[in-house]
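Notebook entry, structure prediction.
Reason for the run: the old model in the group folder had no record of what sequence produced it. Starting over properly, with the input documented here first.
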Amino acid sequence: MNGFSMLAFVETKLFLREKAAAIAVFGLPVALVIGFGLIPGFGDPQKGLSGQIGTEYIASISVAIVMAILGLNGVPMVIGQYRERGILRRLGVTPVRPLTLLLADLMVWAAAAIVSVALVIAVARLAYQVPAPSAAGWFVLSALLGIAALFSLGLLVAAAAPTARSAAGLGWLLFFPNMFLAGVYFPTEDMSAVMRRIGDFTPLGAALHAVRDSWMGVDPRPEYLGIMAAYAVIAGALAARFFRWQPV
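New structure, fully documented this time:
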């Protein structure tokens, strides 16, 4: 087993050992689907949701929540802790480079997001007969671009924050506006035209719109995919430029 595989294995064990994180990533999305699925009539198309099935809408929301929790909270907080505790600095004098640890972490978190999304789809399908995403290819692309955009933004937060506490604070500062403008707290159909347009240009808003569209069998608008790709490239490049392996 090479250094990368060993680190990925260790980081997976550490991730699963954090029960609160595992519950948030795997338990919360499923709980939302189950809870709302029990509401009478929620499994029918809803006029206030552009005709989307209520349970399908909640499943889409759950996918967005997973992206936001891991990307805007998990990524900056964990990397900030590693830097502050000197873990990255100590790795610098070993054959395993700090970048290897960072890539292993990102792989573990991305895998957790993908497993959580698959779990949401399975529970919605088996428990409430919610159809699987109709435009499967577009759904996969939308989910992967959403993960890339939110994770890159999380890396940028980790690069800009001098301490683990400030990284967590900045992550939460981005988390709540993204959740609000994306339509997680209440549907974008109930927002004003200006708020909807602003939400379209947030990474989570673009991801949620693309996921909802592809789940209903509608090709997501190219601008949503472009916005997510732009966040992934620009935030990722800025994070790489300003990232510090050691506290300053």
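Summary: Residues 28 and 62 are 8 Å apart (CA to CA).
The old model has been moved to the deprecated folder.
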